[in-house]
Amino acid sequence: MARANGTADIVFRNARLVDGTGGPSCLGDLALEDDRISAIGDTAQGGLAQIRGTREIDLAGKVLSPGFIDVHTHDDRAVLADPLMTCKVSQGVTTVVTGNCGVSLAPLDIAFRPPSPMDLICEDPKGFFADFGDYLDTLDRDPPATNALAQVGHGSLRVGAMERLDRAASGAEIKVMRARLEAALEAGAIGLSTGLFYPPAAAAPTEEVIELAKALAGFHGLHSTHMRDESDHIADSLEETFRIGREAQVPVVISHHKCAGMDNYGRSGETLGLIEAARLKQPLGLDVYPYVASSTMLASVRGMQASRVMVAWSKPHPEAAGRDLAEVAEDMGLSQEQAVEALTPAGGIFFSMDEEDVRRILSYPHSMIGSDGLPHDVHPHPRLWGTFPRVLGHYGREAGLFPLEEAVRKMTSLSAARFGIKDRGILREGAYADLVIFDPDTVEDAATFDNPKQPAIGIEMVVVNGRTVWQDGQHSGARPGRALRRQDLDAPRFEGAA
Ligand code: ZN
Ligand code: CU
């Protein structure tokens, strides 16, 4: 594939090439031309000695891998409002999947403040898009630094189609939602997400979701789910999730898999056993983030069984952001429950998981990495800035959960296969030049619960579609990302399913 004239835009030399497949890394050179990888050469076979780059960069053994794919984000509005996406590119993320947990910016036409958790991505009704194609076209015109794939949220469909959300949708309402979902899929949406845990969708019966999910099959769409229960009734929720996939005949991704609440510590052996058994019978995947705390609207505290709760933001009490709920409640002279009332609308961070469960789920070979970061929170969960380097540094290098090649696979080729993302997530001649260069000895997250908005350490350079977006700890200002429509992608791939 090396061009006859032996030139390229950039040639990286002496890189440790971690190609995303999980196979062993090797020392080599990689050239890129326009938006694609034009040549790869193993140093043992002379590298790319015959090619000269307009830019030549000697990596001296630093890792060069495919850019990371963040499969679980709430970046729907961030890609428009904060298109540099520094929180993500500074981690090596080059592609984000939006519209998770039933919450999407489109299609939704409302004249009132959206109910929680829709307000986690946008409080202003005018910020939503009635037309999904219009949302994607807006991204085309004014692109972010990362690529984006967008899902339709079931919660957003319900808010747009139902006057009351505390009941099942009627046949007529399902028809309206399904027509809007199909129009969105037509326009390029990659799937349907649900958040059956959340008030806007908690009253939806399984059958309602199945009816909507059936629309996906004709579009190679997939279904992702923040399940109804990730706590005491998690086994029932897993069964519901499998059933939706089977009856609608669609691939399913379980979002941010966890066993929440002290009573459920240690249950990941059981849940992964159920997932493994189902995975052999139907297309099924999952994602996970590398922390023992979750984050969502503060009002969820009731079901959380958390050992500690922090306030991430509060509309009436912005000064509470970053503080422990217990302290805030004490200062207010209120019980914790009353304090939650007083702080709402608000977001929280909940320490509700067992370290051993997090490690077991991260280590499971079919788990992809997704940040679930909340980009508009005043005091966000550190996963927004730290997820990917934390998997590489803290859990890979330091805790030894997996070799570097396997950590990279969970963030690149595995995710690209599940979501059908063509020619990305892999180092291959002809693939898109979405790349990250990092120091495997120092890479780690710097974002903490107390100080969450910190770029990671050791991420040296990030390239999206052949253009540098991050180098030497600084954003280049470039915004070469693309809105990837389902029509431009492959069908999702799930090996192992019958
Ligand atoms: Zn969620
Ligand atoms: Cu989420």
Helix/strand layout:
Blueprint: E1 7-17, E2 26-33, E3 36-42, E4 52-58, E5 63-66, E6 68-70, H1 78-81, H2 86-89, E7 93-98, H3 132-141, E8 147-150, E9 152-153, H4 154-161, H5 171-187, E10 191-195, H6 199-202, H7 206-213, E11 222-226, H8 234-248, E12 252-254, H9 268-279, E13 284-288, E14 293-297, E15 308-314, H10 325-332, H11 336-343, E16 346-351, H12 355-363, E17 367-369, H13 383-398, H14 404-409, H15 413-419, E18 435-438, E19 459-464, E20 467-471, E21 474-475
Parallel strand pairs: 1-4, 1-5, 6-7, 7-8, 9-10, 10-11, 11-12, 12-13, 13-17
Antiparallel strand pairs: 1-2, 2-3, 5-18, 14-16, 15-16, 18-19, 19-20, 20-21
Bound molecules: zinc ion (ZN) and copper (II) ion.
* Percent range for β-strand residues: 15-25%
CATH topology of the domain at 68-292 and 353-419: TIM Barrel
Report mean pLDDT, rounded to a whole number: 97
Small molecules in complex: zinc ion, copper (II) ion
Structural class: alpha/beta
Oligomer: single chain
The count of DSSP E runs of length 2 or more, i.e. the number of strands, is 21
Gyration radius, in Å: 22 Å
CATH superfamily placement of the domain at 68-292 and 353-419: Metal-dependent hydrolases
CATH class descriptor of the domain at 68-292 and 353-419: Alpha Beta
CATH architecture of the domain at 68-292 and 353-419: Alpha-Beta Barrel
Approximately how much helix is present in the residues? 25-40%
Largest sheet: 9 strands, mixed
The parts where pLDDT drops under 50 for at least 5 residues are none
- Tertiary shape: globular
Calculate the terminal CA-CA distance, rounded to whole Å. 37 Å
How many distinct helices? 15
